[in-house]
Amino acid sequence: MNFEFGTTDRIYVGAGAVQKVASLAATLGSRVLIVHQNPTRSAFLFDLIRDAGIIVSGYRFSGEPTIAAAREGVADARSFGAEVVIAMGGGSALDMGKAIAALVTNGGDPLDYLEVIGHGKALTRPSLPFIAIPTTAGTGAEATANAVLASPEDAVKVSLRSPFMLPRAAIIDPDLTRSLPPDVTAYTGMDALTQVIEPFVSPKATPITDALCREGIVRIAGALASAYHRPSDNVARENMAIGALLGGMALANAKLGAVHGFAAPLGGMFESPHGAVCAALLPYVMQANVQAMQSREPQNPALRRYDEVARLLTGRPEATSSAGIDWVFGLTRTLAIPGLSRWNVDPQRLSEVAEKAAGSSSMAGNPVRLTQDELTSILNAAL
Length: 383
What we know:
The chain is of the alpha/beta class. The chain has two domains: 10-176, Rossmann fold (3-Layer(aba) Sandwich), CATH 3.40.50.1970; 181-382, Up-down Bundle (Dehydroquinate synthase-like, alpha domain). The chain is built from 14 helices and eight strands. The strands form two sheets. The chain has a six-stranded parallel β-sheet, sandwiched between helices. A two-stranded antiparallel sheet has the order 6-7. The longest helix is centred in the middle third of the chain and has 23 residues, at 207-229. It is globular and about 60 Å long. The relative contact order is 0.11.
């Protein structure tokens, strides 16, 4: 077996770990741009950097990271003379920070490098040193080598992607997630769960990603409901933060699957939180994948992988894939996950969504090729 594995250079994990940021930044440069979305939550970070004698500026954006916002952030970074980029927030903030850090050094426009709607040119220069500080336990963007940007004009979300975009450091401080509202905890947590299941059943899986996914599934399965019902449960928050990190490391090296294949066009066509979309789709995609393999590819090794997922989720050594699917359905009820119709997904456009999803990069990691009818049926069921 031949494979490679890449991840963030340095990872700091633990309650209070964010206090390391100033000393870490000082080793990388003297002018720091902080990318953020919430000035109230990020104020302490500015203070930490300033108190270390480092010159600091901020770039604040709202909503999803868009191509236009990335251009604006790059202009701000260049005008300020940024030597280091720090992003704090959810996956949107981390993706924006990665995009800015990469585009400052590589020049040109985001469309020069973007997949699908852009020219897809390779980034040829290392990014500015980038530090990721997640405040949700979801996307794992602190350990991925891409940044998702939305193009409202094209009604799609697409990626900048390069090994140069892996963060120089990630600071995983579970204390930063304790103030999340319950619904955000649920949505981001289901995204994290998806990102340790999809790489595990992917044909691109490796022994390293397998180990990460097994640990991540167990941690998230045991913690997500507790974090949702008891936001101050420190153990649950820590397990969720570590689980999300493990998922980011796994997906960056083994790809995702149909859940994320759907999420890209749905997020571009309808105003919908990424994690909420993944949460609504996950059990139906698991069910469709297992049924498709049972009927068309009974020797597919991913069938046995889904049995193992069930055992990891339920803790029952006799569990098979159907028990795992039932467990995930039960979790969505516990977390009050709404269907896609909550986000105004138009039932008349499901075929269009399915067609776009079939061509997405994430579908390369799905364990079985799903037909157009199967893709549309998943969407109908998840409404």
